[in-house]
Input
Amino acid sequence: MRIVITILSLLIFQQGVAQVTVSFKPGPDVGKDAEIVDNQPNLNINDNKLSPYSWTHSSIPVIHRSQIEFTELSTIPTNAIITDAKLKLFFKVNHPATPGVHSGANDLYIRRITSPWTETGITWNNQPTTTSLNEVLVPPFSTSNQDYTINVTSLVADMLTNNNYGFMMSLQNETPYRLALFASSDHSDPTLHPELEITYSFPASIKEQAKNTKFKIYPNPTKGIFDIELKQLEKNQTVEILNPLGQRIYFSELNATKTTIDLNKFTLSSGTYFVVIRNENSSYSEQLIIN
Output
C-alpha cells in the first residue's frame, strides 16, 4: 500500500496556537478517483487519467466528468479550523481519444459530492449527488500543458463538518470541444498523482491553553509518563491526547482527580502534543512536551 501524507509545517506560538499544514498525495492502492461518460451510462472508467471534457465520438457529442475523494481527510480532527486548502492537479500527456493538451474554453466547476460512491462502481447512471454550495469556478487553461492549483478551502471545510465524499469536476460548458487533462492516482508517475494540501488550526478551546484553570499535568516535559490532576472531578469527564497533527492517540474516561497516563507503548516521536479534558459542557487543554 502506497500513501503519502506529508507534514509540511507545525507552528506553535507562545499563546499555544497550533497551525498544521499536511499534504495528501495517495497512490493507486489508496487513491480514489474515476470518470463517467454520458454516452456509455453504465461504464465505469478507472484508469490513469482524470479528464473532464466534451468531445465527439463518431460525430456524437459526449461528456466526461471526473470524481476524486481524499479519504485521508478523516485524519484531520473534526473540530479543526480549515484556514487554507489547495487541490493540485498535474497535466497528463497522451490522452487516448483527444489531443494530448488542454483544449478549448475549458472552465471547470469543482463541486462537493454529497452522497457515497465507489471507485469501481460509479457510472453516469448512478453518479452521486453534488451541491453548488461553495462551488469553485476554475478559469480556462493559460498554457496547453499546465498544472492546476485550485483553492478549495470552503469545500474542504464543508467536508469536515459534513460527510466527505470528495469532489466532482465538470466543464462549466459541456459542449464540444473542450478538455482538461490530468493524471489520476493510478498514473505510473507518482509525482503526477493528485494532491490535497490543507492548513488548519485548532479552535479556541484547544489553542488558548493559558486560560485553563481546571487541571494541570506534570512532569512536563515528560518522557511519556505523566500525571493529570483535576481541580474537580465532574460528570462524564474524559481525557484525550492529540498528536501534532491533531489526531487522537489516547482516550479514556476519568474516574479520579489524579490519573497517571503512560504513553510509552505508543512509541511516540518527540514534540508538542495536546492533553484535552472534556465534560458534557466544555473542554480544556494543555500542551504536553514529549522528549
